[in-house]
Backbone:
């Protein structure tokens, strides 16, 4: 199968999944007993039954569920995610547009940390397999997978900010790309990236170790190439392919991590907004963020698969 | 043969007659003197010789015993476990006691090895009891999800065709969300509480097992003993669960043992976000929820580090030990599935 056909097939397979994602999101949220109007009315005892019914009609909560779904989907496809009911005059679009960049910057920091830490350590561990350095780095990777990210964040605040006084505790108020903000992001970035770095390091180590046993490595060494060239030019390239297979999984890790890490570091991103939406039962916001996450990850998966197929033509023939 | 339904007897094969083997095959009559050894037995032997995994098992055992016996356990009004190892009542503010000199945020001392929390409660007792919810939810969720995922994946993989296609698209859909995001939405719907948390983590959890076991089944069902069992007239259920699943289940067990820690962290994370249990509940994650503010602005200028370090440290140690077990299980089951390759390939 050619690359083009592979991509077309893979994109077509994505469509039912995106449809499923929208159904699951909508279905879950609308299983809630009571709707946002109930929540709104419970804050305001002056609202009579007539006004309640009018509100319900205005936001479409009086319709059957399938019709609500179609209306919602229709609006979403036109790029309208609906109003934030508990905050007057604010739309879900506004919230997402203002919070998304913060989350993306944090996520990128996490990704960069994961790559910068995991790839060199993975190479080192695979080359020095079963030696002391390998054991130590594997132990650290196991700890990194096991440590709860919110506790790691709290401990970093405790030590970095309070004991050694080298990091700010709260995010600075000047722009997203200022030096202060980037310095502040070191801690949350480290927190969000640790689990991914550890997973990635373990994968790098095992795929490098596997590649090192292959015959082309022996051939490269036999023709007298320096070990450095063998490792960095031959082995690394092939084992980096396995990184693309987990890229989507790691992205999901970082997205889930952002929910918790943003709360720990008071970072004003989508994750923090999500937790607030859940506490205040802000249905439109919960719907939008869940759907957004699902769609983003489906597309990340698609992209990872396509990159994988480009790098390793063998899998197109499966 | 008709008396032993589902068993296949092989006759005409005498192991004594097989005397010549490939010289390169490394085959020996086995370490146990010619007798055969079941694969689970062999895996357990492998696991026992893995020091890291055994340390993990020891730590998990100690922590499970400590949380279980920290305070009496009542189920439906009947006390099933009367022992109380925790030195203080985890729910009681000790400074309310007449004649007590305990205050809020007392640093660790001999009487209170982990200090006291914001309400003057003994942290050591709270940490001991605090693992109950997360640890038991971890095991319950993995049991439910692995069981359901096994049946789901086995059915999809065995029948194949459009059944498989539809069932796997559902799996893909659930898989599209990070588990924590789905768990948060479910908690938003159901509210906090023990069984609500079980549901929150069971709903996204099964899909991984289903996908894993389906892949295994696809390769195992190619084996001739499956065709043989079908030819002998075994029913589908019997073919799937007696002949295929036992040969496909090893990766599922590895996955399950590694997932317990993930669920424990997830439950604690929801507790930390204030969505798992009511504030003040002695639960590892919920205990940390209360401490975040103290780190940003310590009460009276000093920071009660013990309120943050100990509950989180308990989660970390438990999950670490659980992952050490998981890695050990992986090695034990992996090693034995590689045996065939090494025997045949001789590389």
Residues:
């Amino acid at each position: 199968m050619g690359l083009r056909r592979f991509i077309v097939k893979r994109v077509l397979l994505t469509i039912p999944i995106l449809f499923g994602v929208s159904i699951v999101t909508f279905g879950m949220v609308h299983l809630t007993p009571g709707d946002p109007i109930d929540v709104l009315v419970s804050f305001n005892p002056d609202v009579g039954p007539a006004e309640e019914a009018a509100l319900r009609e205005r936001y479409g909560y009086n319709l059957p569920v399938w019709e609500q779904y179609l209306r919602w989907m229709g609006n979403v496809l036109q790029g309208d995610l609906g109003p934030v009911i508990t905050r007057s005059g604010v739309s879900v679009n506004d919230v997402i547009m203002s919070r998304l960049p913060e989350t993306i910057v944090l996520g990128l920091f996490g990704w960069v940390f994961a790559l910068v830490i995991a790839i060199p350590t993975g190479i080192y561990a695979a080359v020095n397999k079963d030696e002391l350095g390998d054991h130590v780095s594997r132990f650290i990777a196991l700890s990194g997978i096991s440590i709860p990210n919110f506790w790691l964040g709290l401990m970093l605040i405790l030590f970095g900010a309070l004991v050694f006084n080298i990091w700010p505790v709260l995010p600075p108020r000047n722009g997203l790309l200022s030096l202060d903000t980037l310095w502040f992001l070191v801690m949350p970035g480290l927190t969000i990236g640790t689990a991914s770095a550890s997973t990635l390091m373990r994968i790098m180590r095992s795929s490098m170790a596997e590649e090192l046993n292959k015959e082309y490595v022996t051939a490269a060494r036999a023709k007298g190439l320096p070990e450095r060239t063998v490792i960095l030019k031959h082995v690394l390239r092939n084992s980096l392919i396995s990184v693309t297979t987990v890229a989507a999984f790691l992205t999901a890790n970082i997205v889930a991590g952002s929910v918790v890490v943003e709360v720990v570091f008071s970072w004003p991103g989508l994750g923090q907004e999500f937790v607030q939406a859940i506490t205040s039962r802000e249905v439109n916001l919960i719907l939008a963020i869940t759907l957004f996450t699902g769609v983003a990850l489906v597309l990340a998966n698609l992209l990872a698969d396509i990159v994988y197929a480009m790098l390793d033509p063998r899998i197109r023939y499966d | 043969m008709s008396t032993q339904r589902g068993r296949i007897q092989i006759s005409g094969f005498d192991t004594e007659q097989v005397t010549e083997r490939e010289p390169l095959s490394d085959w020996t009559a086995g370490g146990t003197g010619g007798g055969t050894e079941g694969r689970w037995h062999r895996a357990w032997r492998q696991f026992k010789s893995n020091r890291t995994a055994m340390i993990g098992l020891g730590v998990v055992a100690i922590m499970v015993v400590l949380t279980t016996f920290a305070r009496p356990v009542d189920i439906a009004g009947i006390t099933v476990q009367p022992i109380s190892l925790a030195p203080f009542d985890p729910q009681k503010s000790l400074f309310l006691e007449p004649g007590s000199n305990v205050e809020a945020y007392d640093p660790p001392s001999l009487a209170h090895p982990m200090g006291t929390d914001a309400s003057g409660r003994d942290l050591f007792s709270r940490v001991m009891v605090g693992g109950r919810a997360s640890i038991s939810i971890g095991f319950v969720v993995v049991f439910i999800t692995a069981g359901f995922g096994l049946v789901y994946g086995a059915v999809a993989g065995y029948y194949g065709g459009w059944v498989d296609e539809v069932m796997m698209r559902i799996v893909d859909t659930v898989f599209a969300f990070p588990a924590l995001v789905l768990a948060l939405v479910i908690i938003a719907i159901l509210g906090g509480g023990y069984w609500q948390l079980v549901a929150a983590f069971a709903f996204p959890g099964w899909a991984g097992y289903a996908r894993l076991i389906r892949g295994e089944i696809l390769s195992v069902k190619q084996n001739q003993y499956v065709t043989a069992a079908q030819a002998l007239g075994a029913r589908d259920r019997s073919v799937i669960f007696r002949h295929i699943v036992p040969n496909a289940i090893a990766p599922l067990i590895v996955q399950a043992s590694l997932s317990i820690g993930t669920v424990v962290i997830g439950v604690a994370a929801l507790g930390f976000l204030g969505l798992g249990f009511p504030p003040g509940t002695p639960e590892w994650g919920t205990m940390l929820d209360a401490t975040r503010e103290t780190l940003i602005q310590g009460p009276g200028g000093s920071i009660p580090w013990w309120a943050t370090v100990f509950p989180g440290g308990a989660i970390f140690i438990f999950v670490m030990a659980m992952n050490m077990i998981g890695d050990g299980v992986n090695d034990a089951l992996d090693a034995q599935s590689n045996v065939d390759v090494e025997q045949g390939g001789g590389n």
